[in-house]
Amino acid sequence: MFKIKYLFLIFFVAQLSCQDKQTLQKKAVKNTNAPEKKTVLNKEFKPIISQKTVVSFLTQYASKHKENNVLIKTRLGDIHIQLFNETPLHRANFLLLTKEGYFNTSCFHRVVKDFIIQAGQSDKNSTRELRKKIGTYKIPPEFTKHKHHKGALSSARRWNENPKKLSDPYEFFIVHKKMGLHHLDNEHTVFGKVIKGLDVVDKIAQEAIDKGEWPIKDINLIVNIY
């Protein structure tokens, strides 16, 4: 009698075990059939300007934005800039980058006493991201009567493999040399000038630099239109 009860108990426990396994399997199947979360893909990114649209875009932008005065704030003081109407593409481009906040992510990254102070670059992610947003393009030169006197605002560009002398849209320099840099006339587009703050240009030019002509202590920019 005891043996029969013992066998019955084993059979009952086995049945419960099978039911538990079936329940777990059902739960597992139910979970695997649950709908997966969809990955939301970003729409194809389109920059503001391309090489094909640079002239038409900046021409239209220049007609809508007539500002000429820009303030560059640095830890060494303020530089007041006047942008020239005779260089509408470069003027419009500088205004666009200012309004997009691009220059506020950059700094004076090249300082050469008695030559130039150059800005528009940095090693920040925000600088790279804004370049992607605005676009990859070069600006056709706009050579005018304006020359590379001290305080001239001019556009940087590549010299190698650039026979059309296209300007870099993101980098600019201010002439520091007292006698000017007239060998750069008709090589780089002069599109503005310092109207107040040449003493600040002098201070920046005096900053200690590394072997790459980058200031040891960063000279960040805050650029506003007024």
Question: Topology, please?
Answer:
Blueprint: H1 2-32, H2 54-64, E1 69-74, E2 77-83, H3 88-99, E3 107-112, E4 116-121, H4 125-134, E5 152-155, E6 172-175, E7 190-196, H5 198-205, E8 222-225
Antiparallel strand pairs: 1-2, 1-8, 2-7, 3-4, 4-6, 5-6, 5-7
How many E strands? 8
Give the assembly state of these chains: single chain
CATH class category: Mainly Beta
Count of separate DSSP helical elements = 5
Provide the spatial order of strands within the biggest beta sheet. Answer: 3-4-6-5-7-2-1-8
Which structural class best describes the helix and strand composition?
alpha+beta
Estimated share of beta-strand residues: 15-25%
Distance between the termini: 104 Å
- CATH homologous superfamily title: Cyclophilin-like
Overall number of domains: 1
Poorly predicted segments:
1-42
Order of helices and strands: HHEEHEEHEEEHE
Mean pLDDT over all positions: 87
Q: Main sheet, how many strands, which sense, barrel?
A: 8 strands, antiparallel
Tell me the radius of gyration: 32 Å
Return the CATH architecture. Answer: Beta Barrel
The general outline is globular
Percent helix range = 25-40%
CATH fold node name = Cyclophilin
What would you note in describing this structure?
This protein is of the alpha+beta class. Helices cover 32% and strands 19% of the residues. It has a single domain (54-225), classed as Beta Barrel (Cyclophilin), CATH 2.40.100. The protein has helices at residues 2-32, 54-64, 88-99, 125-134, 198-205; strands at residues 69-74, 77-83, 107-112, 116-121, 152-155, 172-175, 190-196, 222-225. Strands 3-4-6-5-7-2-1-8 form an eight-stranded antiparallel sheet. A hairpin with a 2-residue loop joins strand 1 (69-74) and strand 2 (77-83). The radius of gyration is 32 Å and the shape is globular.
